[in-house]
Amino acid sequence: MTHVTDRLSDYLDRQLDETERTSVESHLAGCAECRSQLSELKAVSESLQAEPQRDLPQGYFDRLRARQSAGNRSAAPAKKVATALVAALAAFIIMGLTLGMLTKRFMPGLFGQIQGMISGAAGSLGNSQGK
Amino acid sequence: VSNDPAEEFFREHARGAYNLALRLCGNEADAEDISQEALLRAVRALPGFRGSARPTSWLYRIVVNVWKNKLRERDRRGWRNLVPLWLSNTDGEEEERPIADGGPPPEAAIEAEDRSGRVRKALSELDADDRAVVVLKDMERLSYPEIAETLDIPEGTVKSRLSRARESLRKKLSRLALEEDA
Known about the structure:
The complex is a heterodimer of chains A (131) and B (182).
Chain A: H1 8-12, H2 18-30, H3 32-49, H4 60-106, H5 108-130
Helix pairs in contact in A: 2-3, 4-5
Chain B: H1 5-25, H2 28-45, H3 55-76, H4 106-124, H5 128-139, H6 144-151, H7 155-181
Helix pairs in contact in B: 1-2, 1-3, 2-3, 3-6, 4-7, 5-7, 6-7
């Protein structure tokens, strides 16, 4: 006789179609072992269902709001640091460009030397990567 | 009445999130930590929530994920599991059970309490996936489609996992009953 242990949970939750349900019921009618298992499964399920909902502990919402505020506060400095970094980078680029333009206009010799150094450095970098 | 959406969300869902976390992890301190983290994550994600999932399934999914993350963190640190304090009912408060006004007599209440303790101990011994499915079905009374949505698994997997979990609980309870009788 093949037991129906693996279908008892579905049977309990009325998840079997009519054919399967009839087959399980006819087996249960002649099998005390499966009937006993079904009754134990039902008791387990009922015990779990009988567990009451607990109330929230006292002060739960105060602690929740404190965590929310702490989270907002810790997120705020990170945002400020990121903004400061972006501003510093933008200032650095603008300063570099301005300095370059002023050098080109008032000290063309120095500008040419710097341009040559940059081209040389770029060229040697290109060569070393190409090897 | 507050107009703050976060505050409204907390008021509406905190008790459900707390109870689910308590049933999953088994102790009040961790349940508070898990449920609060889940609520804060949910509130941060609220503006992007389009309602494709039911709010409860969506929040419950976050609770289950936070709980599983905590389990993994503690496993990494060498802790076997969250400590299920509820096994000994050491939270300092008696569960309210209706004894008067037609409730069961004290002997029956004590027997029910013992059985309840055994059930929760057996539940705490299940692995995380099995525990989640049986808690959602038998304690939170979710339907199969809701459990599938919450755990992001197919309904067939819900059925097979639930069947395995209940069978495992049944065997553990038989063992625990025998141990107590011995």
